[in-house]
Design a protein that fits this description.
This protein has 17 helices and 27 strands. It is α/β, with parallel strands linked by helices. It has an 8-stranded parallel β-barrel, surrounded by 4 helices. A 6-stranded antiparallel sheet has the order 20-21-22-27-24-25, covered by helices on one side. Helix 1 packs across helix 2 and helix 2 packs parallel to helix 6 (215-230).
Amino acid sequence: MSEPSQNLRMKLADLVGRVYPDLDRDHLVGQIIQAFWPEGTHPRRRARTPSNRLWSPHDAMVITYGNSIVDGQHKPLDLLNDFLNRHLKGTVSSVHILPFFPFTSDDGFAVTDYRAVNGNLGDWADIRRIAAEFTVMSDLVLNHVSSQSPWFNAYLQGHEPYDRFFFEASPDDDLSPVVRPRTSPLLREVETAHGTRHVWCTFSHDQVDLDFRNPEVLLEFLRIMRLHVENGIRIVRLDAVAFLWKEPGTPSIHMPQTHAIVQLMRVLCDFAVEPIILLTETNVPNVENLSYFGNRNEAHAVYNFSLPPLILHALMSGTAQHLHRWQTTMPPAQLGCAYLNFTASHDGIGMRPVEGLLPEEEIGEIIATVRAFGGEVSMRTLNGGGEAPYELNITWFDAMKGTFEGEDDHQVDRFLCSQTMVMALEGVPAFYIHALLATPNDHAGVEKTGVKRAINRHRWDYPHLLALLDDPASPQAQVLRQMKRRIAIRCRQPAFHPNATQFTLHLDHRLFGLWRQSLDRDQSIFALHNVSAEDLSVSPMSINLIGGENWVDLLTGETISPTGTDIPFAPYQCRWITNRG
């Protein structure tokens, strides 16, 4: 390995001092470098500087489990590879394969072996095969491991180094300020070789939290990151990272040491020869979520977690007022950073990110409507007692069945409107496979597992799915065809670069409007989306179409005159009006 630069060592030493002030900085820096760059690998001489070159308008992501598609005969990762190449090649550039490791619960997020691919899915060769055609994102599930993992079994038996890998607390500690995403008890009593202990379990008693106060835990995850990179992974998702550092008597979320560890990982990514993007997953209120950009020195990308519930509200209520008010206050991502925009994901539709953004009565209307459309609601425990809605469990396609007034005939158009808004916003769009496939609620999955999230984690039988996609009248064929068409249009527009200029337009409350301008200022796009079931129109003058330009709607091909008649919108119609079509 070539000698690491002094700049790299200095950056790491500063961060090590903030996380582990009582340890030998130089020694730990050497261990970190050795963990991330073992024999045969080496860092760059200079850090990669922040820029907008890590992504482009061509970037779009699909989110999927490794076994979202099965047939009972072939490896699910082989089937996923076939589906991606058959139906999404040239449409999406990236694929997030949700945890593909051996696990015991939470559909992969209670990991037993971080170094192996789940044999029921395939192996590392299958991951590398997909990574040869698409940019692959993997999960670094670094907050907790399975209670049945070799690490935890070794802890129970008192074996080094795992005897100090897990966070212990006492029932007598002041745990009342701790922020929880679940309703289960925080501590789990276990018997170890050293006596009775109480281990910290943020999410479930099968998911035991690790103790990052021990630097050996951090070093082990840096080795795991390197393993991912060596197998073709180029986007690393830091799962549940906000809860990483715990201290009794504190909220134990967003701790300064947590941010410092994210910054440390960012330094390693910036010095990596491979272009590695760091994405933080923090399903929390908006201001807290944005803090993970740091000062251009933490995550390259963050999930835009407030977007799904706000889009859901706009389309259920028929007004974009709250979505518009929030969007006008959203800062543009700093240079070298980007939002990951989405509506549906493998989890439910988080409600914490709209705390303070939606009135309680409006949240109540959303919950009632979701339940009317066959959905469920998951709760979390509040500090001081009581519960509050944590997330809504429903497929996004079924959430689009209707409005606060009930079901109607606009489901497909309403769904496409929601996804078109995601495509138009500053950032990189991401689409859950079950949104692309118009998957209905999987009530049988919920009944079978007893897990509410199973409603949105259907496993498609591949022959049946292919038959539906071959039927032009099926919702699956209609939605995938229209989604591919709109994504293809989007990727050709410089004004839809993830960092291109964005301005929120002040229009009729039923229209959510954005002005996007390319980095070279050559192309403008006025992206207008009717979130209501009503016909309406907008004057060209109100969106300031520049005279002397030839304006065209990219989605319909219509010519739009800057001085002509009002522009009509059918229910849920979207228009992307540009001067460079």
